[in-house]
Amino acid sequence: MAADRRLHVALAGDGEAATTLRSALTATDAFELTELAGRGQSEPLDVAVLVHEGTSEPHEELARLREHTGAPVVLATTTPSSGLVRWALDAGVADVLWLPASEESVLFVVEKAAQTARQLEPGSGEGRVVTVFSPKGGSGKSVVSTNFAVAAATHAGTKTLLIDLDLQFGDAAIMLGLAPDNTVRELLGTPAALDGEKLGVYTERHSSGVDVLPAPMSPEDAELVGEEAIRSLLRVARESYDLVVVDTAPFFYGPMLATLDQTDELLLLCNPDVPTLKNVRLTLKTLELLSFPEDRLRIVLNRASANLMDRGDVEAALDRKVDWVLPLDPTVPIAVNGATPAVLSRPDAPFGIAMLELVRATVGGDWAGGKQHNRAARLFSFGRN
Ligand SMILES: Nc1ncnc2c1ncn2[C@@H]1O[C@H](COP(=O)(O)OP(=O)(O)OP(=O)(O)O)[C@@H](O)[C@H]1O
Ligand SMILES: [Mg+2]
Q1: Do 293 and 285 meet the contact criterion of CB atoms below 8 Å apart?
Q2: What is the C-alpha separation between 293 and 296, in angstroms, rounded?
Q3: How confident is the model at residue 277 (pLDDT cuts 50, 70, 90)?
Q4: Is 124 exposed, middle or buried (0-12, 13-18, 19+ CB in 10 A)?
Q5: Domains annotated on the chain, with CATH
């Protein structure tokens, strides 16, 4: 959870205790109070608070609450007892809050429940790193990486982190409509050792479920992000996530080489124009010199159009098979300007369809065709079209 992101909290129960607690929750701007009933499936909920005033254990109230959400539940009770605490533990309640409670106690217990739940989210420990690169600026790296991450999270329920390593001019966060205060620079600039917990604090969650670690705010901060730090960031990230998608800058430099070291799947983007193809050819040669494994490389032709060079022309120019084709599609710039990825806003348009197919074949697993789904899909079967 980003340190500065408001937690979405819902409160179940009525009566005086619930009213007082509601005031405490709204008194701090750490929380955004949302309604349980009528919430859209895609609206995030971090913690549900169940208010309990009686002497009996609130079995039914908890069951009703869980019909609405899988978020961790904090039981707030005016009548604490050891029996109730034991019951709460058995019932899988995240924490028990004794009422009346100070605003600080409410803040602590709710934040702790959200953070614990987040750390417990499943990650296979063998997450894969998919890096999107092109030697030419503007060829669609950020569009492809943001759409890839969002499609994997929403359609396959894959626990996904998007890292923007276009360190000077990264725009992954803005393409997702996020304006976070923390970036990779803040994460790597603190002295404490990097682990999954710390990573969780510095990422921002997109409504699709993707966690985003943005590029530094200022171009001059880019050089503060070292290559060894990038290697360990990617090592830690793949322990905590099933899928780590990396957006990159359009050149080979230290951070890119460090990223390649940790990359399982490189999506090398090209556009159907001669200058880009010339640079992609050079990139292929460089990758060979670096001994980057051929079986980890996919060529993706972006902005394909009937009026431009076709797939065969591009394959002839590169002397290599094109693995995926993404069409030139006017819905893409509209989606970029609307800060909603095309796979969400226009999954029916040519780019959305092709992108979803690319991600489905790459991520594999239990593809949900548009719904937030389970997190079981962690087996990657890299396919080609
Ligand atoms: N398939 C497509 N169809 C239409 N427009 C596209 C397509 N792919 C990308 N674009 C447009 O191209 C622009 C540049 O894309 P993007 O920002 O993803 O490129 P980039 O490689 O990340 O650039 P940079 O090197 O500057 O970071 C975007 O504004 C987007 O609207
Ligand atoms: Mg970019």
Answers
A1: no
A2: 6
A3: very high
A4: middle
A5: 7-120 (3.40.50.2300), 128-363 (3.40.50.300)
SS3 for 244?
Answer: strand
Q: Within a 10 A sphere around the Cβ of 42, how many other Cβ atoms?
A: 12
In angstroms, the CA 212 to CA 342 distance is: 17
Instruction: Quote the ligand 1 centre to 332 CA distance (angstroms).
Output: 8
Whether 121 contacts 240, CB under 8 Å: no
Give the number of whichever ligand sits closest to the CA of residue 146.
1
CA of 270 to the centre of ligand 2 (A): 14
Looking at residue 193, the DSSP 8-state letter turns out to be P
Q: For residue 134, which ligand has an atom nearest its CA?
A: 1
Q: What is the pTM of this model?
A: 0.70
What residue's CA is closest to ligand 1, atom 3? Answer: 328
Average pLDDT over residues 335-349: 96
Say how many C-beta atoms besides its own lie within 10 A of residue 178's C-beta: 18
DSSP per residue, 211-225: EEEPPPSSGGGGGGS
39 and 45 Cβ atoms separated by less than 8 Å: yes
- Distance spanning both ends of the chain, measured CA to CA: 37
373 pLDDT higher than 50 = no
Q: What is the CA radius of gyration of the chain?
A: 23
Query: Ligand 1 site: residues with CB under 6 angstroms?
Result: 134, 137-143, 166, 250, 302-303, 326, 328-329, 332-333, 336, 351
* H or E segment and range at residue 246: strand 243-248
Query: CB within 8 A of 1, min separation 6: which ones?
Result: 7, 46, 114, 115, 118, 200, 201, 203, 205
Segment holding 132, helix H or strand E: strand 128-133
Six-digit token string for 239: 């322990």
- 133 in helix, strand or coil? strand
Q: Which candidate, 332, 337, 359, 137, places its Cα nearest to that of 248?
A: 137
Distance CA 110, CA 117 (A): 11
pLDDT at 261 over 60: yes
Query: How remote is the CA of residue 288 from the centroid of ligand 1, in Å?
Result: 26
Q: Give backbone dihedrals phi and psi of 216, rounded to 5 degrees, phi first.
A: -55, 155
Determine how β-strand 160-165 pairs with β-strand 243-248.
Answer: parallel
